[in-house]
Amino acid sequence: MMENFNYREILIEGARANNLKNITLSIPKRKITVVTGLSGSGKTSLAFDTIYAEGQRKYVESLSAYARQFLGKIMKPDVDKITGLSPAIAIRQFSTNVNPRSTVGTITEIYDYLKILYTRIGKTYSPISGREVKHYKVEDVVEYVMSFPDKSRFFIVAPYIEMVGRDVEEQLGLWHINGYSRVLLDNNIYLIRDLLNDNNKLTKISSDKLFLLVDRLTKSDDEDFAFRIKDSIQSAFFEGDGKIFIVILSGKERKWVEFSNKFELDGMRFSIPDVNFFSYTSPYGACPVCEGYGTVVDIAEHLVIPDPTLSIYEGAVAPWRGEKMSEWQKYFIKYSKKYNFPIHKPYKDLTEEEKNLLWNGRDDLEGINSFFKMLQENTYKIQYRVMLSRYREKTICKACKGTRLRKETQYVKIHGYSLPDLLMMQIDQVRDIINTWVITEKEREKVKYVIKELNSRIDYLIQVGLPYVTLNRGMNTLSGGEIQRVYLSRALGSTMTDTLYVLDEPTVGLHPRDTHKLIDILKKLSKAGNTIIVVEHDKDIIKASDWIVDLGPKAGSEGGNVVFSGPIDQLSGDPNSFTAKYLYDPLPAIDSKTKFSFLETNNRYIELKGANKNNLKNINIRFPLNQLIAIVGVSGSGKSTLVVDELYEEFNKYLQHFDFEKTKLSGDFKLIKDIVLIDQSSISRSTRSNPITFLKIFDYIRELYSLMPLSIQRGYKPSTFSFNTTGGRCETCKGDGYIIIEMQFMADVKITCEDCHGKRFKEDVLEVTFGQKNIYDILQMTIDDAYEFFKSQYSFSKNKKIANLITQTLNGLELLKKVGLGYLKMGQSTDTLSGGEAQRLKLASYIGAGEKTEKTLFLFDEPTTGLHYYDVDMLYKSFKELIMKGHTICFIEHNIELIKRADWVIELGPDGGEQGGYLIFEGTIEDFIKTDTITTKYLKD
Length: 941
Hints:
Layout: E1 9-15, E2 23-28, E3 32-37, H1 43-61, H2 65-68, E4 79-83, E5 88-91, H3 104-108, H4 110-121, E6 123-125, E7 132-133, H5 138-146, E8 153-159, H6 168-177, E9 182-185, E10 188-191, H7 192-196, H8 199-203, E11 210-218, H9 223-239, E12 243-250, E13 253-260, E14 264-265, E15 268-269, E16 295-299, H10 301-304, H11 326-335, H12 352-360, H13 368-377, H14 382-390, E17 392-396, E18 412-414, E19 417-418, H15 419-423, H16 427-436, H17 441-463, H18 480-494, E20 500-504, H19 512-527, E21 531-535, H20 539-544, E22 547-552, E23 561-566, H21 578-584, H22 592-595, E24 605-611, E25 619-624, E26 628-632, H23 639-655, E27 665-667, E28 674-678, H24 691-694, H25 697-706, H26 709-714, E29 738-741, E30 749-752, H27 763-766, H28 775-780, H29 783-794, H30 800-818, H31 835-849, E31 856-861, H32 869-884, E32 888-892, H33 896-899, E33 904-909, E34 918-924, H34 925-930, H35 936-940
Parallel strand pairs: 3-21, 3-22, 5-20, 20-21, 26-32, 26-33, 28-31, 31-32
Antiparallel strand pairs: 1-2, 1-4, 6-7, 6-18, 8-11, 8-12, 9-10, 9-11, 12-13, 14-15, 16-17, 18-19, 22-23, 24-25, 24-27, 29-30, 33-34
Helix pairs in contact: 4-17, 5-9, 16-17, 17-18, 18-19, 25-30, 29-30, 30-31, 31-32
């Protein structure tokens, strides 16, 4: 059962997960607690692997046996006891929801409320005439009639409906049999029996002028009148196949008012909107082409036209190059003359009509799509299959333009905006539009609660620093910090209480300007009766918390202890806390002479001209060579677009030998021989990859073990000590150390291999030792411990080859220590690393390459992710090492401590989304600090 919610604190006794040293501590409930410390000090082990894991386990145990069969088995964390736990929710830096249909709108439930809003007060308009499409129930017509003044005279009539096999005479006869006696013909009243007896008149009847007169009435307020008109209207709808007219008599004038119970206009029949009609997770509402995904695998324009500055004559169409395929280009140039197609105009300057001709051709002219249709028809030839795959990728669905919804949803509007329109807008624009809507009192009664919820949830998204995202933005396209903040806004919207929220660095990707908004959100959650535990390094978040748990004192085996646990105002006097040191004794400013001592300013630079992708405003930017360049600005200002979509892509075009004259690059870009993007993506999906295999350090260690006397005696080779190949590994688990058991109704279960007991190797291989440690012992060490171990063994080694292998191992491990990864285990799978750890591991590999690497431009995306202030110094020294070797580093960052150490700063802004994309500043850090921008405000604090 769950613990009693009346506990005032969460008490953790004897926590030993990973490197935690059997710690005992208490955390106050309904408060904000920050768990901080150096990278690898045990923060995640305490917050997620212990507290959250136990909260989840106890919750699952409280469920019925029936419910538990659908849930994976949750192991008890390595802790003696935890009391005072509430149901726990973890908000991590990665999305646990792999559904590609999950969007910002669906996760926050804003999309659900918009569907209800459009179902209740949305109006359908014909795409042909633009008129509103209406359909009426009997009650609507009754309400209309009852609004007439007393004594008003009117007719209820139904139009004549032509039917196959039934002429006018037969229809009149049928009406007469059914009890009707009069019709309106040419606006005059006739008795049906008179018409049936007048053959001359019958033959001249025009069917569009013939109406059945169902009833003649005078408005009255008595009850019988209401019953009568309801019955007459119902009969008229039946006889008129869903269409009737109320003919209002005013003297000799007659006013005809049409009503239809069918949802149609201009010859089109429309769907009556409901919630499923607006849902792209429903077959009824989803776009039939992309099935609600918004993307399809199709021919990508940017792959077919890689350089839009070229004309068709210059070879803009990439697949029309080469000896054979160029015949298509020659054909198009020859036969497009009759359509006055401008073959010498750059592709980017073509009009939509000209592009349509190029892609779709005409009856006597084959375009690009005809070319790919030919390839598709000949896919039995391998060269055509290869060519097709070269120009295909996931592209925006042309049918729904990425909205995911069927096109009919665009006909339903509120004040000129359809639901797909709102889904494709920035969240702050959606709020502004909704707040300008003027709706009737009747409509307000239907949607007042819906609009209230919409406004509050949109405001929460804006408060967590995401005004620039669109509701249709896929969750799998967001950064780790953005994902966390989306889930955080949902948590606030759910109004849950007595819940434990565990967050992992929610400030990742957040500009300091927006941090106070995040703090307000956390405080609101706390005041609602929830307990907040945040793993964080941000100074403002730490200072705003109620309680601090500082782990350390260092990382790895030297961490895992509680250095400090208590209220923030007691932290400043703790001499053992690195966190206290950096909070209250800030890093000294770097003297400009010292900072530039390793640089040779030579006025060489790369210039990027006309950067205009996404929200960039056609800006020109300079990147000085052999310097440390910081790209700063608020979230959504265009930093990633500038670095990844513009600089990286443009440089790759140059490296792939595209036409230099057409490039956006100028200046000394040819001095750079390579460009490397080091982002936070996973290094390897393989669970067998680890830090020492990634840097090839394990090769030296395996060779070293193969030189041990017992290995030589048994004929062991370096491959014997590999868990990737047969020979020395345990064949039961194939070197994994565990076996995965597939469960029919539960999550797959990992169990320790019974043969090797999780040690991955055969028993006889583990008998080989070096310094009394076998190969498994080495893999279990932290990098820091392994470094000290191999260093201690060097002096005992008399064999030169072994000494050389130890030296190479130490050099590799030192690289990992330099980038702040000394706390990782040697054998830790790279698929368990955070985005920041993966970045620093890649950085270590390039530092290790040394002088062998040609002059390279390195691009980093928030390299301080997961780093304590103490570790930022270490990262800066690694950057400095690359700069000293002649490389150039450009990094996107919000961390003030690293920005201060940059040589050159580029700030984009002034805001996110459409309000961003402008160049606010470019220049040296000294000049930057003298200016007044959103970022310099925090640099000066």
